[in-house]
Amino acid sequence: MLYSKIEGEGKPFIIMHGFLGMSDNWKTLAAQYAEAGFQVHVLDLRNHGRSFHSDEFTYEAMAKDVFEYCQANQLNKIDILGHSMGGKVAMLFATTYPEIADKLIVADIGPKFYKQHHQDILAGLNAVDFSVKPSRNDVEEIVAQYVPDFGTRQFLLKNLYWQEPGQLAFRFNLAVFNNNLDEIGKPLADNLVFNQPTLFIRGGNSGYILDSDFDAIRQHFPDVKFETIPNAGHWLHAENPKMFFELTTAFLKE
């Protein structure tokens, strides 16, 4: 069963993080959604955070995990939000299990194929040798050689934890990511459609969703709205959480 953090009372609202992320990334926004009247379930997807590790790492497997989580927690007519990889999981979940899904929010990812672009990040993570018992500073210095952007590095290093006294490790399943990296960019199958209200929200400085993608998105999600957060990149919910919360809450309460 997937690890989750649950807070609030009201309509069930599932939130899914992106690749190499975890539920903790959504802690502040989750509390706000709970205050707004939702029962918020922030998930750690398989091979991420505190959820189980598995050699199987596909969107189909991740969507099925979410379905089984809903069954176990007796969740029905749920709203769903997914960012990046979590957005792809959310799209597949909604189109596969439309009887459970009510409204869908996809943050800065489209249903199309994306060329692999995480090579530098994975090279940095793979360069860390935990057998020599590095400190947090040591790990950051190594990763910094491959990932110069401070914000991205801090996001990645949130995955560090003390496996035992004196021994750090990453929470995510790096070995499986190395072997299944092409899975992340896979598109949503052409025949999958979700007819319920859907919001695609993108960062104005991000190139993940282009104006030219809108028609293809409408083929999968005919009842769709598009919103853009200006001056925000791919981590739009972290860069402008206030506007992100306002736009998403307005959509959920329509």
TrEMBL record:
InterPro entries: AB_hydrolase_1, AB_hydrolase_fold. Residues 11-109 form the AB hydrolase-1 domain. Pfam families: Abhydrolase_1 (PF00561). The keyword Translocase does not apply. It comes from the Bacteria. Keywords: Hydrolase. One of its GO terms (molecular function) is hydrolase activity. This is Alpha/beta fold hydrolase. It comes from Flavobacterium circumlabens.
